Automatic annotation (TrEMBL), chains A, B:
CDD domains tied to this protein: GlyRS-like_core
Chief subcellular location: cytoplasm
InterPro entries in the record: aa-tRNA-synt_IIb, aa-tRNA-synth_II, aa-tRNA-synth_II/BPL/LPL, Anticodon-bd, Anticodon-bd_dom_sf, Gly-tRNA_synthase/POLG2, GlyRS-like_core, tRNA-synt_gly
Lineage: Eukaryota, Discoba, Heterolobosea, Tetramitia, Eutetramitia
Name recorded for this polypeptide: glycine--tRNA ligase
One GO-annotated biological process of the protein: mitochondrial glycyl-tRNA aminoacylation
Protein source organism: Acrasis kona
């Protein structure tokens, strides 16, 4: 963790300490309040205890002030929030066009956001890294599937029936709300009142913890109990299920109902056979896909974290339901992860750090493949620039699991809004393939060859058709059909009965019961060798919300630099820095010519640019003519790790060097023009470090106007 | 052009020659038919000309055979079709899972296709190349915008009213058809009849040429004229306008109408101000965006070429409407392009090759920016692997232009279906920004500083309000309002009148006419300096249909290798090859261990793989245990340019080399294991050529089973 990111995450220990102090102080306050109440209970008592009442009054005032200041401190130390100034941070995202409400010029439509140039470049980089980390390194089979989906697919997957949220409506004006979010907001607003009673505080803390598991009944009961009203102050309807899928008719007749997919996974499931075939019918293997998904959220809030259209990157790893081992498990078994298991949550315990191997031994994680993807997800998120202390894996409670999941661990990232689910790693078992097999009436199985052929006993039924036709005439056909349709279990029973009682009864199509004896019917046992069998594969699914990951990485990489003077400071521009890893940063380099109209400077600038392009290093040129300090700030704002300045020495043929500035330390070196692109390429590709680079090139002294402060 | 691609495109000359021969032969045939008709006109004549009739009969039979075979040859030489066996080609796309109808297990929904692993990888590569070629090389501002769009946006852009096709309905069963496609299919089926009369052939050829420009009236008239019926043989309705946008309500109340965007461009237009600001208020600049677009096609045919969901990559280059010069124009002015101008089409001429500079001089292309993007588009398409002879730029006829375009050139690629529009390069002038300014009531202008301040005269109106209130009492206010609202032209006229006649009349709100004289009203002229002005920028838009480009590149790179023997030949697998450029190929390399269960082979294979991964070279491993020839074929099928074979020499420590095979030539070299990844990286990144590599490493002799034939 670098210096500037230290204070953003608070420790659980400090928070717990503050909680205890706060509660003790509240208790002392309550005792004093009780005492003063008793003392003031009658005119006589008041008169008798005058002095004590005065003292107590002073004490109470002091205690109340103490409770208030402790509450503030306690809230600030919340380990479940990232401590950044969100107003300033949002200001940065807006000022540098990271994110814009879509169609803002027409007034915003809630839940839709566009990415401006820097965020768009970050997104491309995150997706490239994802493909490198998952698809290419693991030889996954990536497919590209459409968003428009005909209804039968989501009927089979269960989404038409069960992909719902609970909605309540303002009975007067028709405004819609998500019942659970409304209840949660109510809890939050009550809990933030420092004078809330301990009883109500405990009650609402418990309610808040269990909201995700409430059904429509519980939600309705709580809304009535706490008399929660709409924003306009009106009564609310009972909660009811509302489907989150956008629907649109496909084709000109309007007869085919279509949905915009709410997840990209189904594209892989319906193509299972093609992928299995492409993989040479070998198991296990993983499919992967990247694309847009759509959810018609009831009332999207929290800015970028709950939106109606978003990019998902999903992996479906198909394996044998009885063997979820992973060939590369050993490579991750010593990775340390912070886990918040179902049991820990129920017991009110905090997340605990353990190795993947320990988590498997504890039976926190149930199989190697699930464990493998939890570890690989952590490695990916850290490469994206997530703070290690701001990452945990939380297991779903059995009540909050999606309808298709048998187990699920979310990678949650800490933000100023709290812990946010960014990756869901679910064991979908055989649910989806079984559902599609049933609904589409196709075979979606894999074939397994037994390690050695298995022997099993089967019972053949032998009928003397000639004798039967003499005895039963026209009914013979119906009898034969009935006997042949008997399963192995029935045949065993019939065989025993025939042997013990000499005859058995069969019921033919028209309901008539016919007796058959050993003359016409016998059963013989036979040994059969089978080499293998078909089975429905199980699925482990890591599903990445790309937009959420980007948002969290931006919060995690954000800090404010202490300024140390210079001409620009008065202008009130905050010295924000995004310490994004070079892999993710929107541009790897910026080029700033001190003079932007001078021919010589333009020549050197073009020379530098052309070398950067040859090394496929993305860059921005800033020829705005503003002060160099101001321009450095603009680069820091969008997280450009390396800035090249073309100055008077650069245009002096006897020197021909440029300044190279590192974003986080503000350190500057002088590097020859013809080497600069190579140096940056090596830094960006992790072939060298900044410290090693510093040893190779002379340091550049900063002029006053270039100084924008180092560290905090 | 490489050897194998030569025969796929026919020359216009050869086709014209064949056309002439065919027409001449038809004429001779007609003359003979006329003559025999006359000779057979009466019994006497028949009797008298018996011998001549016999001779003529023989001659006619021969001529008819000649017409038939010439027609076949003529059709094969069609320069407007790519000559590949489409059935075989489609078989390859299916066999190797390039493309699958979406949700095929549920029966296909027309117009929706998924990309399997190889096509998905090709798509990622094409988009990366696009970003490199346009966004990064040109410092464009890429944005990422949502698909869901509220109605007001597409009302402003004109899509709600005008983004329509003409539809006809089967009046009996309600089946829908696109009127123009129905007429086109009718023309095609008639024209393919060798016995069609010359008159009808000429007529339908003309109709086909103008279909794109027909409105509902002309389409209806032709459908009636040729008695075109539905597939079921029923009568069709009159053509009517059908909007191609998918609509879906946004939010839970159902009150906000949304559309899935039919183009991605609007995301850039509505964000114009943000981009202009991000660019430091400097012009010109270009926005870019990549994403899904949706069109609810009436009855999608032609497989991958007309689909309901597709990926677009669009550039919007904003420039001054009076100055569409491009700073980098000089770098492309000598590029030779094949242009089919509006004039050439009207005159029935073929496309002509010319340099960009010539096309500008001829006024075929009207401005530098339009010309620049035509050239850059060509360079991009050629890098993607398009055949130079299979690319042309066709200008839209004024009747077929989209409602927003003032000029448009399509990059068309030759396919087995004919010439297909893959990139539209439109001059959208100021249409979109003006529309959004009007509808959203916001300022979407750029500011230009004049090279020197401009002086202009304005006329001020001076009123003596004190005198007026004495003269006009309560009406004074209305008079002042009226005078102040006069424009500069009116003020000039009033001034002259007041000077010549001593008084002027003004009409106030209630209709009363009031006379004013010089005592209360005077006009004075004033010189004003203006430094610049706001203007609505013009837009040049290159819009790339990524799916179409991929399909065409696959057709262009496809050929069938002549086999020269070997064990696999009997199995009837066609020896297809996709000669994709390495940049675009789904994987750059394949690794084939001859033994897939032997520890030593596995060790070497893993060593090779690990080196490839370090060099970020994408690869597939084929351990299927099939013959090496068979496995080479599989690699050729999906266009893998380089194949590494791990054989007995590879596991021999004293040798430790692998075989490197080049896809198009089938040539094989022996390369040391520790050098193989570097060699491939250099080949793929164009740092060395295959010929240079051949000089550095010894040739590997092929064994019989590895031989799959070289060239044709």
């Amino acid at each position: 963790m670098s210096e500037h990111q230290k204070d953003k995450v608070s420790s659980v220990e400090r928070f717990n300490q503050l909680s205890t102090t706060l509660q003790d102080t509240k208790k002392t306050l309550n005792t004093a309040l009780e005492e003063i109440k008793v003392l003031k209970s009658s005119v006589e008592s008041k008169e008798q205890n005058k002095d004590r009442i005065t003292d107590l009054g002073k004490e109470i005032t002091a205690l109340q002030a103490q409770v208030n200041s402790l509450t503030k401190e306690w809230r600030k130390a919340d380990p479940d929030r990232l401590h950044i100034d969100r107003k300033e941070f949002d200001g940065l995202l807006n000022r540098r066009s990271f994110v814009i409400p879509s169609f803002e010029i027409y007034g915003q439509t809630a839940g839709l956001y566009d990415y401006g140039p820097p965020a768009c470049a970050v997104k491309t980089n995150v997706l490239n890294l994802w493909r490198q980390h998952f698809v290419l390194s693991e030889n996954m089979l990536e497919v590209d599937c459409v968003c428009l989906t005909p209804e039968p697919v989501f009927k089979a997957s269960g989404h038409v029936e069960r992909f719902t949220d609970f909605m309540v409506k303002d009975e007067a004006n028709g405004e819609c709300y998500r019942a659970d979010k409304l209840l949660e907001e109510f809890c939050d607003s009550q809990l933030s009142d420092p004078n809330i009673s301990q009883t109500l505080s405990d009650e609402l803390t418990l309610v808040k913890k269990h909201i995700d598991s409430y059904g429509e009944k519980e939600l309705g009961q709580h809304i009535v109990k706490y008399n929660i009203l709409s924003e306009a102050g009106n009564k609310l309807s009972d909660p009811y299920r509302y489907n989150l899928m956008f629907s649109t008719p496909i084709g000109p007749t309007g007869k085919i109902t279509g949905y915009l997919r709410p997840e990209t996974a189904q594209g892989i499931f319906v193509n299972f056979k093609m992928l299995y075939d492409y993989n040479g019918n070998r198991m296990p293997f993983a499919g992967a896909t990247v694309g847009q998904a759509f959810r018609n959220e009831i009332s999207p809030r929290s800015g970028l974290l709950r939106v109606r259209e978003f990019t998902l990157a999903e992996v479906e790893h198909f394996c044998h339901p009885d063997d979820k081992s992973h060939p590369k498990y050993d490579s991750v078994k010593n990775v340390v992860v912070k886990l918040l298991s179902r049991e820990a949550q129920t017991a009110g315990q905090a997340a605990s750090e353990q190795t993947i191997q320990q988590a498997m031994a504890n039976k926190n994680i149930l199989n190697e493949t699930h464990a493998y993807f939890i570890a690989r997800t952590q490695l990916f998120l850290l490469e994206c620039g997530v703070l290690p202390t701001g990452l945990r894996f939380r297991q779903h409670l059995s009540t909050e699991m999606a309808h298709y999941a048998s187990d699920c661990w979310d990678a949650e990232l800490l933000t100023s809004y709290g812990w946010i689910e960014c990756v869901g790693i679910a064991d979908r078992s055989c649910f989806d393939l079984e559902q599609h097999t049933k609904h589409a009436k196709v075979d979606l199985t894999a074939y397994e060859l037994f390690s050695e052929p298995k022997l099993s006993t089967t019972i053949d039924a032998n009928l003397d058709k000639k004798k039967m036709s003499t005895l039963y005439g026209k009914k013979t056909g119906a009898i034969i059909k009935q006997v042949n349709s008997l399963g192995q279990v029935d045949r065993q029973a019939y065989k025993s009965k025939l042997e013990s009682q000499g005859q058995v009864n069969v019921t033919i199509d028209d309901g008539e019961v016919i007796s058959l004896n050993k003359d016409v019917l016998t059963f013989t046992e036979k040994q059969v060798r089978t080499n293998g069998r078909n089975y429905v594969p199980s699925v482990i699914e890591p599903s990445f919300g790309i937009g959420r990951i980007i948002y969290c990485v931006l919060e995690h990489s954000y800090w404010v630099r202490k300024t140390i003077g210079g001409a620009d400071e008065e202008k009130g521009v905050p010295r924000a820095v995004l310490s994004l890893p070079p892999t993710i940063a929107p541009y790897k380099a910026a080029v700033l010519p001190i003079q932007h109209n001078d021919k010589e400077y333009i020549k050197v600038t073009n020379q530098v640019i052309s070398n950067l392009t040859k090394n496929t290093i993305s860059y921005r040129v800033d020829t705005s003519g503003q002060s160099i300090g101001r321009r450095y700030c603009r680069c820091d704002d969008i997280g450009i790790p390396y800035v090249i300045t073309v100055d008077s020495q650069s245009v002096d043929a006897s020197d021909a060097s440029v300044t190279l500035r590192e974003r986080d330390s503000c350190e500057q070196l002088r590097v020859p023009i013809h080497e600069i692109a190579d140096v940056i390429a090596q830094l960006v590709n992790h072939q060298t470090s900044w410290n090693d680079t510093k040893e190779k090139y002379p340091t550049q002294k900063q002029t006053a106007s270039e100084q924008v402060g180092k560290g905090k």
